Structures are given as structure tokens and as C-alpha cells.
Amino acid sequence: MNATWQALRAYFPVLEKRPYFNTAFAGLIHPIVEEKLVAVRKQYMQELTHYRLHEFEAMKDEIRTLSAEILGVSASNMALLHNYSSGMNVITQNLKNKKVMMMREDYPSLYLPFQTAGFEITYIGEQQNGKVSYAEIEAAIKAHQPPYFAISQVHYNSGWCVDLVRISAITKKYGVKLIVDGTQAFGAIETNLNRLHVDAYLASTYKWLMGGYGAGIAYISEALLADFSFCMASQNNLVFDDDGAMHYEPGIKMFEPGHKDHEVFARLLEALKLTHHIGISDIEARIRALSVRLSAGLKAQSIELIGDPDLDDFDRANILCIPNKKEYAEALAASKIDCSVRGKAIRFSIHAYNNEEDVDALLAVFSK
What we know:
The protein is an alpha/beta fold. It has helices spanning 3-10, 31-47, 49-71, 84-94, 108-116, 134-144, 164-173, 222-225, 262-278, 280-300, 326-334, 356-367; strands spanning 78-81, 99-103, 120-124, 148-152, 177-181, 200-204, 216-220, 238-240, 246-248, 319-323, 340-342, 345-349. The protein folds into 2 domains: 3-21 and 279-367, Aspartate Aminotransferase, domain 1; 38-277, Type I PLP-dependent aspartate aminotransferase-like (Major domain) (Aspartate Aminotransferase, domain 2), CATH 3.40.640.10. Strands 1-7-6-5-4-2-3 form a 7-stranded mixed beta sheet, with helices on both faces. Strand 11 (340-342) and strand 12 form a beta hairpin. Helix 2 packs across helix 9 (262-278), helix 3 (49-71) packs parallel to helix 9 (262-278) and helix 10 (280-300) runs parallel beside helix 12 (356-367). The longest helix is centred in the N-terminal third of the chain and has 23 residues, at 49-71. The mean pLDDT is 93.
């Protein structure tokens, strides 16, 4: 393990007490992020109105800029969210064409907003071995011609890491707008939207970005905004003319209703800086190396992996799942391994603050 990963891990002494393989549930918060929160709280109590009107506004602009750099898009197309779900509900309530295609077994926070908004949903068939073939996806899109296709970048219950290059090429080919839930990828998987045909990318930031609860980000393309009815608004949609008169201006600010908590977004900014400093490509490479180690160890013990067994094709990265068998669950609980049960799967999620010893400790549970 090189110095970068040793230094990162040193900030999380809890990892020396028990292996943590549950970032897909909630990421550990870096102490630097918490220190920034303390400093911001003190600054606000000293500056009050000035802080909210000037320092906080500058902070929000910096968050949009940094998140845009990580995703390879323009900051003007970024919105700050309270969480992923708040942004997804804005999309589904405002799209005028109420038809969408998605995976049958995708995450509820992706499909429920479409259901409750009255969309006609075309589901792609059942996943095979934790995924759906790209040929099947293209055939379904070609046959049904949906205006929108929605999908999770990394699937919570199998670890399938969707190839957005292939998916976006398919949607572009048929003139379909692509909506992506990036919550299980943002901060762990390098994603350059500038090279992709993606119209919406949303993520909560308390998992892989290590930013704590209460915030999220969204990229919304101009093409998708053109499909909106703009049936929602807040004071952030108001603009002032030179003569002081104010009027409503529809646009991406609709995703930012009300007054945001500066403490929450101070944490987010610091987490973005940390990820940007380390480098998202290096973080992904570290995660994939540990995933390969865990995958190989599980296979050596004849433990089935849910999903494609070949990691070389990048079908799986930061999440690995095995069948939810009673003996597995009991052994993990007895060994105090922190992971999640998701339906028929036991889920292990790996971040850059994990190390080879964590992986070996997890594998040792199954060798007893």
C-alpha cells in the first residue's frame, strides 16, 4: 500500500478495530471535513448576515465548479441538492412527456419518483447474473422508442457497474435522453460526462464522496431542461432588473428551493476538495485493485459472486455481492464485519480507505 492510501487510512482509526465494507450504505466522514464544519460554525457566529450573503454564496459557487470539474461539465449546469431524491422528484414532476424505460430491478429511489408522477414505465426484462445485456437494452429501446431511459450507474444489489459509454451511445443512436443515478459511483468511479450522451446525472454525497448527510449534486443538460414544464419554483428563481423589479426566471435554480444549511454544504465542499486532491482516477484504481483481490479470494473458496465473474471487463468495481445464505450472514456477524444485506444478496463495498488486510480479514471469515 503506497503512502497516499496509508495517509488516508490513518485518518480513520476505527478501521483498525473492525473492517468496514459498508460505504454503499454510508461513507466514513474524513476528519478534515469535520474540522471544516467546526471552523464554518465559528465563522458564521462571528459574521452572521455577511457570511450568508457573501461567504456562503461563494462556497456554493465553488461546489458547483468543483463538482463540474469532476464530471467534466459546465458549472452552469450543476445544481446543489438536499439529496438525490429531491432532485429526481423535481425531474419527474416537471417532464412533460410521461414515458420512461428502466431496469425492472433498479433502486426504488430511481423508479418510485417516476411511478408516483404517473409515468408510463416500460421495464426491461429480469437481470441475468446481476445485469442485463447491452444488446437487450438496445433492442428494447429500438422497439419502444422511449423519450427517456433511466438507470443506476452502479447497481446496489449486484454491484453491476454500467458502461455509460455503451449505454449513452445506444440512447444517442435512438434519440433517447439518458438519466443516471450516480449515487453509488460519484466519488469512486471516474465519470466524464463531456464524453457521454447523458442528460441528467444526480448523486447524494454521503457515500463514496465522504461528505456526510444532507447534500447532493445534479447535472442537468439544457436539452432536458427544454422538456420541463417548470411547475415548481422558489425565491431562487427570482431575478432583479436594473430598476429593482423582480421577476420569475425558469431554469436550473428550480432544483435549489429554499435556504440551504451552510454547515452541510461546507462539509460537501471539503469532501470535494479532498477527492479532487487525491484524484478520482487514482481512487477508482485503488478500489478496483482491492475488488480484484476480494473477488479472487472468494472464488478460491468457491463462494459465488453475484454478477459477471470477469472483473477485467469493468462490469463490477466498488461493490461485490454474494448470495444471502444463513451461514454466511452468521459468520460475518460473529466476526463483526460491517456490511449490508440487500434482499437476496450480502453486499461488500470497498473504498480507498480499505486495505489488503481488510480484504484478507473478510476472506478469513469464510475459511473457518
